[in-house]
């Protein structure tokens, strides 16, 4: 799990590369949609927008495809459990909530609103206030996703093995090294079974 613009994607990419594991992010969603027999657009709609029971009903009525939150949750759980068994680094998707009782290494990458907004402003050539609003919207959507689909708040430290505030690191490669050392200390270095 990561805060918007805290560097989580870059850290996850480096971590998966160093471990020789596949990185699962939006591709996870596509696999869930394929497994569920539902179009990617319908699953993205369920993934990104909450409170859509009417839309689910209408979509099911018009297409005959099952696009309910329960079906989504069922297929997402199965996909995450499959990844847990074969190994991989999972970016978001509530993996820390689903796999909490499994032997996986759960990491939360976070940063202050100010630092994350500065990163977004620089990366996307936005003014600082627009970058703040964008970050708030992304973080709010992620929190709503977890609450709606897993009944879990996003920022409870007890749900993670390690929480890293990237405000304190100027080099995100240092964070990757920190994660790998923490994993090794917990006995994960020799296996290729990790989740994020």
SSE layout and pairing:
Layout: H1 8-19, E1 23-24, H2 26-36, H3 40-48, H4 53-63, H5 69-86, E2 89-90, H6 95-98, E3 107-110, H7 113-124, H8 128-150, E4 162-165, H9 172-185
Description:
With 196 residues, the protein is mostly helical. 58% of the residues lie in helices and 6% in strands. The protein contains 9 helices and 4 strands, in the order H-E-H-H-H-H-E-H-E-H-H-E-H. It has helices at 8-19, 26-36, 40-48, 53-63, 69-86, 95-98, 113-124, 128-150, 172-185; strands spanning 23-24, 89-90, 107-110, 162-165. The strands form 2 sheets. It has a two-stranded parallel ribbon. Helix 1 (8-19) crosses helix 9 and helix 2 (26-36) packs across helix 3 (40-48). The radius of gyration is 17 Å and the shape is globular. It starts with 7 loop residues before the first helix and ends in an 11-residue tail after the last helix.
